[in-house]
């Protein structure tokens, strides 16, 4: 049984400032994400998932094992949605799909921001590709992960308080606005 490991951050810990500070990343990546990895490695011992990959655990496990596996996956995916060179707007086929689904990029941004601001408590808000309906905005509470419902994640924002409290305190809307300044549309386009 090989342990899951915390993947390296795809940027320096201070590279997202001033939008997300090095201090936030020190806790969010170094403490929270690491704790989910450690808990996952402990909780799968003695379960049918000792040799399972992360996505299989997310699809099939329940309770704490599911929660920690999903949180590991969600955080790795979140880091890979962010870049010091992010911001701007999508282009090409993704931009066209966003226009078809939401009317315009601005309307997508407004709806996505409202979903992120409106999610009660802790959770994630995703842009997903749904096989039947094209693109959709999907809020998931707590450790929710779209893979479990056969939806394909394209981008995500973490709206747990630990993602923004050191930088923005109670002002989640300010964090959401700054998230768009870091959003790596090239990475999102490559998934699409
Ligand atoms: Mn988080």
Account of the protein in words:
The protein has 192 residues and is mainly alpha-helical. It has eight helices and three strands. The chain has helices at residues 22-43, 54-60, 63-79, 92-102, 105-118, 165-168, 172-182, 185-191, and strands at residues 123-130, 134-141, 152-158. Strands 2-1-3 form a three-stranded antiparallel sheet, sandwiched between helices. Strand 1 (123-130) and strand 2 (134-141) form a beta hairpin. Helix 2 (54-60) crosses helix 3. Manganese (II) ion is lined by residues 28, 32, 75, 158, 160, 162-163.
Query: What's the total helix number?
Result: 8
What would the principal axes of the Cα set say about the shape?
Answer: globular
Give start-end ranges of low-pLDDT stretches: none
Bound molecules: manganese (II) ion
- The Rg value, from CA coordinates, equals 16 Å
Helix content range of the residues, please?
A: 40-55%
| Biggest beta sheet attributes | 3 strands, antiparallel
Q: What would you say about this model in short?
A:
The model has no long low-confidence stretch (mean pLDDT 97). The protein has eight helices and three strands.
List the helices and strands and how they pair.
Blueprint: H1 22-43, H2 54-60, H3 63-79, H4 92-102, H5 105-118, E1 123-130, E2 134-141, E3 152-158, H6 165-168, H7 172-182, H8 185-191
Antiparallel strand pairs: 1-2, 1-3
Helix pairs in contact: 1-3, 2-3, 4-5
Tag the structure with descriptive keywords.
8 helices, binds manganese (II) ion, single chain, about 190 residues, about 50% helix, mainly alpha, globular
